[in-house]
Amino acid sequence: MPERLGDPLETPLFERVAIIGIGLIGSSIAHAVRQKNLAGSIVAIDRDTEVAARVDALGLADAIFSDVAEGVKGCDLVILCVPVGACGPVAKQMAASLREGVIVTDVGSVKGAVVASMEPHLPAHAHFIPGHPVAGTEQSGPDAGFATLFHERWCILTPAYGVDPAAVARLQEFWEGMGARIEFMSAPHHDLVLAITSHVPHLIAYNIVGTAADLEQVTQSEVIKFSAGGFRDFTRIAASDPTMWRDVFLNNKEAVLEMISRFNEDLAALARAIRWDDGDALYDLFSRTRSIRRSIIDLGQETDAPDFGRRPGKD
Length: 315
Ligand SMILES: NC(=O)c1ccc[n+]([C@@H]2O[C@H](COP(=O)([O-])OP(=O)(O)OC[C@H]3O[C@@H](n4cnc5c(N)ncnc54)[C@H](O)[C@@H]3O)[C@@H](O)[C@H]2O)c1
Ligand SMILES: O=C(O)C(=O)C[C@]1(C(=O)O)C=C[C@@H](O)C=C1
Known about the structure:
CATH class of the largest domain: Alpha Beta
CATH architecture of the largest domain: 3-Layer(aba) Sandwich
Bound molecules: nicotinamide-adenine-dinucleotide, prephenic acid
Strand order of the largest sheet: 3-2-1-4-5-6
Shape: globular
Distance between the termini: 14 Å
Number of helices: 12
Mean pLDDT: 93
Low-confidence stretches: 304-315
Structural class: alpha/beta
């Protein structure tokens, strides 16, 4: 993973960008915008005063606000980087202050519920283009961000039919400036795909680490001592932010529950194969899953190291 993005632009794409919520994703965007000169100035907005103080100390923004309505004034790009459950209330707070022609986007891990909660509040003069960078780590907060987080990662945009194509192209250019690759899809399809590739895997990690912690015959210290391999990878994922993931599950209920019921059926089939010594069934599945892992590596989306998503030089 490169430490720096490419050369900065000579002319910024946007005059003034507001980033609302300066955690892992918001601070990573701020770093990348600075490095690549993607905006003339950066406005950081966070309701947490300790976060605002860190943003100031890290020099992540040109102006810092706790009030959303004040902060977005005059901005031509507004990016919501708050937990998905906060997107609707934030859209309501900022609606009356949005400038003519502003692009409003978000980075939420769920799209359908975010669109439903934000859209009713946004004025007709705003271009609303929901987004989701499929890149992250288990860390959170303003110190966790880094400029290359989105490099060579997908960013999914889910614009509604009829949204101004020029605004979509500008936002696409913005994400590409941060090194991301763009894919377009509908919000419901996004939620189905991410339920199986991201949301349910996190639920499984939370569950298995919780189960191990509750075991009576195996002590906590044995779990910690012998968690060198697969279990250790699960603990990384299970260390992810509780607020963010609570909101993801409560806002992508239908797709997640559908994937859990498919998962449960397949797990029951595996249990049956073990019970009845059906080695062929086990071998066939494990061969198929091994080839999926190999095709992910061939696509260049992963290295063989499990901690690819971590901050360079920090972990
Ligand atoms: N962490 C990841 O791996 C990842 C990856 C892609 C997308 N996302 C999405 O990005 C968003 C942010 O995730 P993160 O990991 O950066 O979270 P984070 O916890 O690191 O940061 C969130 C920030 O939002 C602030 N905030 C919360 N409610 C607010 C409000 N009402 N007004 C103003 N500020 C508010 C918090 O104080 C915090 O500083 C989430 O919607 C998440 O689904 C996360
Ligand atoms: O690498 C990680 O730690 C992540 O969990 C990143 C991850 C993912 O599931 O891939 C998590 C949630 C986001 O919405 C996008 C990316």
